[in-house]
Write a structure and sequence with these properties.
The complex is a heterodimer of chains A (144) and B (125).
Chain A: H1 8-26, E1 42-47, E2 51-57, E3 67-71, E4 74-81, E5 91-95, E6 100-107, E7 112-122, E8 125-132
Antiparallel strand pairs in A: 1-2, 2-8, 3-4, 4-6, 7-8
Chain B: E1 23-28, E2 31-37, E3 46-51, E4 54-60, E5 70-74, E6 80-86, E7 97-101, E8 104-110
Antiparallel strand pairs in B: 1-2, 2-8, 3-4, 4-6, 7-8
The chains are: A mainly beta (144), B mainly beta (125).
């Protein structure tokens, strides 16, 4: 079908595949959990000297159903996004949004304190802030 | 939230880099329903724009980032979303209604009334 190629998502899927192949070609020692780019929820990870912040872009989810766990330095975010079922007479023209169960795993740095975790869900973004251990904080040493 | 008046806003150029949000579009007898994933966009930074038969969805991501944060891994690498759709004639763009919750936008675009039969009066001169 000719018109199919006009939809940008097909071009994007191709680009994604290309990007994946490029990453695999250049990333000689990828993480054992893979690159996982393009998974749901998309994740950004950032850090400050006091904390590690993980942003999971998971829109349209009841925060009570989200399962966030930290075990042995590994953070797991799991849950399910249910789909609003269209009526019987309805026609689906575009279907790009994720639905179903999801699970993503992030390895945390060694210096995080698993007891100092704060998780918030706002505007469809789950933000998990994990404090770093006191002993790992940079300290200025005074010279006598 | 219903935003069908051409809002006063700064014109974002079409070529400004933006993420393409994933959407679902479902049609039934009453009209078209569009769902778009716009995580990270607060309500006040969502911009819906209907002009002639073009529907533009734009949103700025606003995450409260502590100062001095350094990103170590970023999959969402641009701070805005943008997607443009062309509406067809039988849709009534002036009656678009929108709901925005938890980063999911739901737009309902009803079918126009003019599809209904109308009687034409013939004047005899």
């Amino acid at each position: 079908m000719m018109y199919r190629s006009l939809f940008p998502r097909d071009v994007l899927a191709e680009l994604n595949r290309l990007q994946r192949e490029m990453q695999q070609a250049f990333h000689l020692s990828p993480s054992i959990r893979g690159i996982a780019r393009g998974g749901f929820p998309a994740m950004n990870v950032g850090g400050t000297p006091q904390s590690v912040d993980i942003f999971a872009f998971a829109p349209g989810i009841d925060p009570a159903t989200l399962d966030v766990q930290i075990e042995k330095g590994v953070l797991t975010v799991a849950g399910e996004r249910k789909r609003d079922l269209p009526g019987e007479e309805a026609t689906v023209h575009i279907d790009e949004r994720f639905d179903g169960r999801f699970r993503r795993v992030v390895t945390l740095p060694d210096d995080v304190d698993a007891n100092a975790v704060d998780a918030k869900y706002r505007d469809g973004v789950l933000r998990i802030s994990i404090g770093r251990k006191q002993s790992a904080q940079p300290r200025r040493i005074t010279i006598q | 939230m219903s935003d069908n008046s051409p809002a006063v806003k700064k014109e974002t150029t079409a070529d400004e880099a933006a993420l393409l949000p994933p959407v679902d579009v479902v049609e039934d007898a009453s009209g078209i329903t569009l769902y778009a994933d716009l995580p990270g966009v607060p309500k006040e930074k969502l911009n819906l724009h209907v002009e002639a038969d073009t529907l533009t969805i734009e949103g700025e991501i606003d995450l409260e980032m502590p100062g001095g944060m350094e990103a170590s891994h970023a999959e969402v690498s641009l701070p805005r979303y943008r997607r443009v759709f062309t509406l067809s004639k039988e849709l009534d763009a002036s009656k678009v209604s929108a709901e925005f919750r938890n980063g999911v936008l739901k737009l309902a675009i009803p079918k126009a009334e003019h599809a209904q039969p109308r009687k034409v009066e013939v004047k005899i001169l």
